[in-house]
């Protein structure tokens, strides 16, 4: 990928096998926009009203977009608004040393004009945003706004982690990148910028020492600040982008403070078939599966780090005090550790907690007994990554699941009284019209309450991205904004062009949904929460118009 383009874009298709390409990287020197903005703000006598502004920025088109610390960005066809628990977790690590505000512009339905008014009113000293590939340029517009009030800008997420240089070079309004797991890197950076690295509260100081034995805070010398010691950081030194070594993952997630849920607009979050608001509780980080298309390993890696049932129960109770009784157990793979699941379910039952909760799973990480226990403790919905009915496609993508096992596991869940939500991917390597038809029929035969069909998306940092680049499967002139799984695709296979993939994605949903059972489910979704009927109706109409093409 050329790093001299003003906007990063996926590599252009290369049809000649063996053809060598050459990328010439020119040094880029940008003006010190941070200093210019600070002088401008100081000249107007302005002072910050908040130290740190953590944001989920407005969307590029006004639609509901799903962004998350370790997930990809995409439009929400299911009328779901995701709680920004990662921002609440970062806020907990910063308070009370620093004043913090979380702005979830997506949940608030906020326009860029309204968002700009908040930035100008708060005048944060530090502006922290997440980035995703399909919303990259849109998200970085927020850093430009923050610069006009003198803020130091930072970004994290699954795009900047694998492509740090390509993200910082074209955007001088972005000062720092937080690669991988961003929590400790954010606290470390702000402490050093504020001169608080040697006066941290004991619980924060212990957190740094415990999770990196080699860690030592530094004292900056006179003149230019050198951040080369700070793991996980991307920064600029004399106009050049510097990528520091990785920061070790937080080994014991129980050492993290409870997310500050009270800073989130909890009443605005919603999920289909749930009455009232819901929230995420992070039960683990990491996933041992090796699916080639999955972005989760980019931020959290393949190692599993579990949270104790006791800590999870504390969060359930706190959310209950805040009026939230619908919980999504948020994990890369919730059922990966059977002992944790069983302990949590038994604790919920023993405590008499009246909650309804959902989770995700692979079909090969459940059994009937565990599913029945989950149902007794309040689980009523599981989302499954089913992807394809073709064994060869699944094997090539290293999914490692037999479609027959999918039938068994979903039948067990239905037997236990749990609803099934299935995700399928159209366009993984090896896909043909015949395999797509087979997947559609497979989806129709499963006991699914909801099914969604996405187009395979080659996100940076995944083996799938490298495979697409190597084989020249990127559509000519493709841009990051088109890697969104729903509206368009950057893929262009010799046997399945981009337009064909888009057609079959819509047709797959249409064939699955236009049947009596699924139609009844959608009517139930509309009736599940009268406060969102109007919004759901609008989304439903848009959804079926989209499916018709």
Q: What share of residues is helical? A: 25-40%
Query: Which overall shape is indicated by the principal axes computed on the Cα atoms?
Result: globular
- Structurally, the number of domains stands at 2
Low-confidence residue ranges: 1-31, 529-540
Q: What would CATH call the homologous superfamily of the largest domain?
A: Aldolase class I
Record field, number of beta strands: 17
Class derived from helix and strand content? alpha/beta
Write the layout of secondary structure elements.
Elements: H1 33-43, E1 52-56, E2 65-68, E3 71-75, H2 85-94, E4 100-104, H3 112-122, E5 126-130, H4 136-147, E6 152-156, H5 164-168, E7 176-178, H6 183-194, H7 202-211, E8 233-237, E9 240-243, E10 279-282, E11 284-285, H8 296-300, E12 305-306, H9 309-321, E13 326-330, H10 338-351, E14 356-361, H11 368-376, E15 379-387, H12 391-396, H13 403-416, E16 419-426, H14 433-445, E17 450-455, H15 463-471, H16 498-513, H17 516-527, H18 533-548
Parallel strand pairs: 1-4, 1-5, 5-6, 6-7, 10-13, 13-14, 14-15, 15-16, 16-17
Antiparallel strand pairs: 2-3, 7-8, 8-9, 11-12
């Amino acid at each position: 990928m050329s790093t001299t383009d003003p906007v990063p874009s996926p590599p252009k298709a290369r049809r000649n096998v063996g053809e060598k390409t050459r990328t010439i990287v020119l040094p880029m020197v940008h003006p010190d926009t941070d200093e210019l903005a600070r002088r401008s703000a100081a000249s107007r006598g302005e002072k910050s009203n908040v130290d740190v502004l953590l944001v989920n920025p407005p969307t590029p088109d006004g639609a509901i977009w799903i962004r998350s610390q370790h997930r990809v960005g995409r439009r929400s066809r299911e009328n779901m608004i995701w709680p920004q628990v990662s921002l609440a977790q970062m806020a907990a690590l910063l308070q009370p040393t620093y004043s913090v505000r979380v702005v979830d512009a997506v949940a608030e339905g906020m326009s860029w004009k309204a968002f700009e008014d908040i930035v100008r009113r708060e005048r944060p000293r530090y502006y922290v945003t997440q980035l995703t590939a399909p919303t990259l340029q849109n998200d970085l517009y927020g850093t430009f706004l923050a610069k006009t009030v003198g803020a130091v800008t930072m970004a994290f997420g699954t795009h900047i982690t694998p492509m740090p240089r390509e993200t910082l070079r074209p955007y001088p309004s972005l000062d720092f990148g937080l690669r991988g797991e961003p929590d400790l890197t954010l606290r470390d950076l702000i402490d050093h910028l504020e001169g608080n690295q040697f006066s941290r509260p004991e619980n924060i100081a212990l957190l740094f020492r415990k999770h990196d034995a080699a860690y030592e805070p530094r004292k900056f010398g006179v003149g230019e600040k050198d951040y080369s010691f700070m793991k996980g950081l991307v920064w600029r030194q004399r106009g050049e982008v510097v990528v520091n070594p990785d920061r070790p993952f937080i080994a014991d997630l129980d050492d993290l403070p409870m997310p500050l849920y009270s800073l989130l607009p909890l009443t605005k979050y919603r999920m289909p078939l749930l009455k009232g608001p819901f929230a995420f509780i992070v039960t683990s980080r990491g996933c041992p599966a090796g699916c080639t298309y999955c972005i989760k390993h980019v931020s959290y890696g393949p190692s599993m780090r579990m949270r104790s049932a006791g800590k999870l129960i504390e969060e359930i109770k706190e959310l209950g005090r805040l009026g939230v009784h619908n919980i999504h157990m948020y994990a890369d793979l919730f059922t990966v550790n059977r002992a944790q699941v069983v302990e949590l379910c038994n604790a919920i039952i023993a405590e008499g907690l009246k909650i309804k909760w959902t989770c995700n799973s692979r079909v090969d990480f459940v059994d009937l007994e565990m599913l029945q226990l989950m149902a007794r403790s309040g689980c009523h919905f599981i989302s499954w990554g089913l992807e394809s009915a073709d064994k060869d496609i699944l094997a090539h993508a290293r999914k490692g699941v037999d479609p027959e096992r999918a039938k068994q596991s979903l039948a067990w869940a239905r037997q236990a009284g749990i609803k099934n939500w299935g995700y399928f991917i159209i366009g993984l390597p090896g896909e043909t019209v015949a395999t797509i038809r087979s997947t559609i029929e497979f989806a129709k035969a499963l006991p699914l309450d909801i099914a969604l069909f996405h187009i395979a998306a080659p996100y940076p940092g995944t083996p799938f991205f490298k495979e697409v680049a190597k084989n020249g499967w990127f559509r000519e002139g493709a841009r990051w904004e088109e890697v969104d799984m729903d509206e368009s695709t950057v893929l262009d296979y010799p046997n399945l062009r981009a337009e064909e993939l888009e057609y079959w994605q819509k047709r797959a949903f249409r064939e699955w949904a236009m049947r009596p059972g699924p139609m009844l489910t959608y009517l139930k979704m509309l009736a599940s929460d009268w406060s969102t009927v109007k919004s759901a109706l609008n989304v439903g109409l848009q959804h079926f118009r989209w499916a018709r093409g």
